[in-house]
Amino acid sequence: MFKKITICYTLLIICVSLIPIPELPFPEFSLSDKSLHLIAYFIMSVMWIRLGFLESNKIKWNYSFLVLFTALTTELLQGILPIGRYFEIADMIANCIGIVLGIFVSYIYIIKNKVT
Fold it and tell me: pLDDT tens across 14-46, in order?
């Protein structure tokens, strides 16, 4: 069940990242755009790392690379596709910071709570 939720969340982030902006009904947030990028990719990395750990009882680094690939690809596609979105290096940096924080928090949590 958690695998399906993780995949759905990832697909949701991809869709939100690639839908033309005028068609998105964005609610008003007090957070900056960069904070939303950081939070979205933090959550995604935690979910994928947790999924990998549940499957094999160890950290699967390829899942972290999947999240990084998703972050980089969606940002690059925003600059390439004619969808009214723009490539921003600051967005990519926010994505990567969220991923690194997610990996760090997950790793610390797993190490702290690992029963050997």
Answer: 999 998 876 556 556 556 889 999 999 999 999
Q: How far apart are CA 40 and CA 84, in angstroms?
A: 21
Which structural domain, as residue segments, surrounds residue 76?
2-16+32-113
Whether 84 and 24 have beta carbons less than 8 Å apart is answered as: no
Whole-prediction pTM: 0.86
Domain assignment of residue 21, yes or no: no
Helices (H), 1-116: 2-18, 33-56, 61-80, 89-113
How many domains does the chain fold into? Answer: 1
Q: Are 41 and 95 in contact (CB under 8 A)?
A: yes
